[in-house]
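F.,

This is the one I mentioned.
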């Protein structure tokens, strides 16, 4: 085990979180005055000033930033401007809905993407391959918000098979999960096909065939394990994309998750909630990427050595 490899990855993850928090802190305060957004147009200058003083907005950006970082380290993400509750509590209430949507989309991604890529590689140049590649082009070309609107028009407005918004039943989950999973499944299918084709042409696969090992066994015992490493990397990277993409999908389908909360909080200039959501998304993506890096290094120790040499070069 190369300790330097893991420490380097952890340090980069912490730096990413710091940059994400800093970016959203600066952008939110540069985009407008929260006091004017939260209060009515008839609010007096005294009321606006009192609001700023109450929430610490009358201090310099540097002082606000230092106070916020110190509070985050203690686990205090501030209070919501809208209802005065802790921002973390407001965000945590929405996590189950987002997890339900994200996990379902991930399962659809794995069920569709990996088998489609494997079949395309095993039947290269044939109808199955062309169909799988057409799916990848479609999935990666069509914006997910546009696909969601089309699904609503077809299955809700025209056929009246599925509800167009909200949550509560399995039927509410189908269209948002399919919309969120389509682009990710297309990416996974393309990378799975590419990785399988590379493995199928390796010398050890020709050796296994020459020894008379059955086709199914060659694929399951030799090809798939060796093709799994780049696929695991892609799947891990796309998990972060599922979390980020949920912001758009939850808005289109009125899904009451973290993404919809973020959109509402931005419109209301609820700084504490926005910062808590962004930090949660950044933490999720960094954590997933770290797990992928560590898994990659465990499956292929050469990755640890290569990355360590690059870091010390």
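My design for it:
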């Amino acid at each position: 085990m190369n300790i330097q490899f893991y420490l380097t990855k952890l340090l980069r993850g912490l730096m990413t979180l710091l940059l994400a928090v800093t970016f959203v802190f600066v952008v939110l305060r540069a985009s407008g005055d929260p006091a004017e957004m939260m209060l009515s147009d008839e609010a007096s200058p005294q009321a606006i000033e009192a609001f700023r003083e109450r929430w610490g907005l009358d201090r310099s950006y540097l002082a606000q930033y230092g106070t916020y970082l110190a509070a985050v380290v203690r686990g205090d993400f501030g209070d919501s401007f809208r209802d005065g509750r802790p921002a973390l509590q407001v965000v945590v209430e929405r996590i189950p809905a987002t997890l339900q949507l994200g996990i379902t989309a991930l399962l659809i991604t794995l069920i569709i993407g990996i088998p489609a890529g494997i079949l395309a590689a095993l039947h290269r140049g044939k109808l199955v391959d062309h169909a799988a590649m057409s799916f990848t082009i479609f999935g990666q070309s069509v914006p997910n918000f546009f696909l969601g609107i089309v699904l609503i028009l077809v299955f809700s407005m025209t056929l009246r098979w599925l509800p167009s918004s909200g949550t509560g039943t399995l039927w509410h989950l189908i269209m948002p999960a399919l919309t969120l999973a389509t682009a990710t499944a297309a990416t996974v299918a393309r990378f799975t096909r590419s990785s399988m084709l590379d493995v199928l042409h390796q010398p050890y696969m020709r050796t296994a065939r020459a020894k008379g090992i059955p086709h199914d066994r060659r694929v399951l015992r030799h090809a798939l394990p060796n093709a799994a490493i780049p696929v695991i990397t892609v799947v891990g990277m796309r998990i972060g994309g599922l979390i980020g993409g949920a912001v758009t999908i939850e808005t289109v389908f009125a899904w009451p998750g973290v993404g919809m909360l973020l959109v509402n909080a931005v419109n209301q200039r609820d700084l504490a909630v926005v910062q808590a959501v962004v930090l949660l998304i950044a933490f999720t993506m960094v954590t997933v990427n770290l797990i992928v890096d560590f898994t990659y290094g465990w499956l292929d120790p050469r990755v640890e050595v290569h990355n360590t040499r690059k870091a010390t070069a």
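Residues 92 and 258 are 8 Å apart (CA to CA).

Talk soon.
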